[in-house]
């Protein structure tokens, strides 16, 4: 067996009640949710009982989804399964900072709350939306985006690219796609993320990371793949800050990230968080990969029964060595 990667989902995968099962039954999850609640009171009730519309608002989505994502990692680690590499989609990358050791869990949660506020403000200044375009030629899509003044931002997997932009331009672009009979899916997000419209949010996050004494970014214990570069994070703090803050206004190179992880020896991908979107991207990108998702106790039990703990895996490898 090769390496294991934990993947953390991004905005659009949230739903009321996510991670409830893990929160109620896994001590490590319950304990950290209590820490997060002290930092941002009301997050747990919002996460478990908030409406779809409430959870779609960026300043709410990101803290709640951070907890749902990290709950999966905490549950896996409590069962003896640890990652060899980590990647997170957009806000999921902040979860990755905690799981890879670049930040403590509480630091990462404080950071995602700040990030959410900066992005919420930017979203209110320029109303925008995002869609996933299915099956369109990559170069043709990029060309059409340029003509329509919208942006191809998330390169998810072969045959799927997310487009983002200002609401009026996006409406016109969607009409073009409909006329050309190109399929697309509306994403449940509250802004035009990963575009130049997020420049102010990116700058604010960079200032927060540089000026605040609340965050002590350190070199990761295990590779954390960055959305912006599709490569592991650098070791220098200033470079880490640049990549993390610029991510807000840069494209997510997810397909390249998965390919690079596979080339490094990863053959097992575990999506932590609600939904199975990232699992679908892996299936379309990495042939023969073992793919799992953890969002509740039953999925945790399936993973542990099929994979065993890291210690058991190592014992098997030594037996066959």
UniProtKB/TrEMBL annotation:
InterPro entries: Ac_transferase_dom_sf, Acyl_transferase_dom, Acyl_Trfase/lysoPLipase, Mal-CoA-ACP_Trans/PKS_FabD, Malonyl_CoA-ACP_transAc, Malonyl_transacylase_ACP-bd. It is an enzyme of class 2 (transferase). Coiled coil: none annotated. The active site is at residues 90, 194. One of its GO terms (molecular function) is [acyl-carrier-protein] S-malonyltransferase activity. Residues 7-303 form the Malonyl-CoA:ACP transacylase (MAT) domain. The keyword Nucleotidyltransferase does not apply. One of its GO terms (biological process) is fatty acid biosynthetic process. Keywords: Acyltransferase, Transferase. Pfam families: Acyl_transf_1 (PF00698). SMART domains: PKS_AT. It comes from the Bacteria. Its EC number is 2.3.1.39. Belongs to the fabD family. This is Malonyl CoA-acyl carrier protein transacylase. It comes from Butyrivibrio proteoclasticus (strain ATCC 51982 / DSM 14932 / B316). The gene is fabD.
């Amino acid at each position: 067996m090769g390496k294991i990667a934990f993947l953390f989902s991004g905005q659009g995968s949230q739903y009321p009640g996510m991670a409830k099962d893990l929160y109620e039954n896994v001590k490590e999850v319950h304990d950290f949710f209590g820490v997060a609640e002290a930092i941002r009171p009301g997050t747990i009730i919002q996460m478990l009982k908030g409406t779809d519309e409430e959870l779609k608002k960026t300043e709410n989505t990101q803290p709640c989804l951070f907890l749902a994502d990290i709950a999966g990692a905490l549950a896996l680690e409590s069962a003896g399964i640890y990652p060899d590499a980590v990647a997170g989609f957009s806000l999921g990358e902040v979860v990755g900072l905690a799981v890879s050791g670049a930040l403590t869990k509480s630091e990462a949660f404080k950071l995602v709350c700040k990030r959410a506020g900066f992005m919420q403000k930017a979203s209110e200044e320029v109303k925008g939306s995002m869609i996933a375009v299915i099956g369109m030629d990559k170069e043709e899509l990029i060309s059409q985006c340029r003509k329509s003044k919208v942006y191809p931002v998330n390169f998810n997997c072969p045959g799927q690219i997310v487009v983002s932009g200002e609401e009026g331009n996006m409406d016109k672009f969607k009409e073009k796609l409909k006329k050309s009979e190109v399929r697309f899916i509306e994403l449940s997000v509250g802004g035009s993320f990963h575009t130049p419209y997020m420049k102010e949010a990116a700058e604010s996050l960079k200032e927060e990371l540089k000026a605040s004494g609340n965050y002590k970014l350190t070199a990761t214990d295990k590779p954390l793949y960055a959305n912006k570069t599709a490569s592991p994070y650098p070791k220098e703090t200033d470079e880490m800050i640049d990549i993390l803050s610029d991510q807000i206004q840069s494209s997510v190179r997810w397909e390249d990230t998965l390919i690079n992880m596979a080339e490094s020896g990863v053959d097992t991908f575990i999506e932590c968080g609600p939904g199975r979107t990232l699992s679908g991207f892996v299936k379309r990108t990495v042939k023969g990969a073992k793919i799992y998702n953890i969002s509740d106790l039953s999925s945790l039990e399936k993973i542990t029964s099929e994979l065993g703990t890291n210690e058991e895996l190592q014992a098997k490898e030594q037996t066959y060595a």
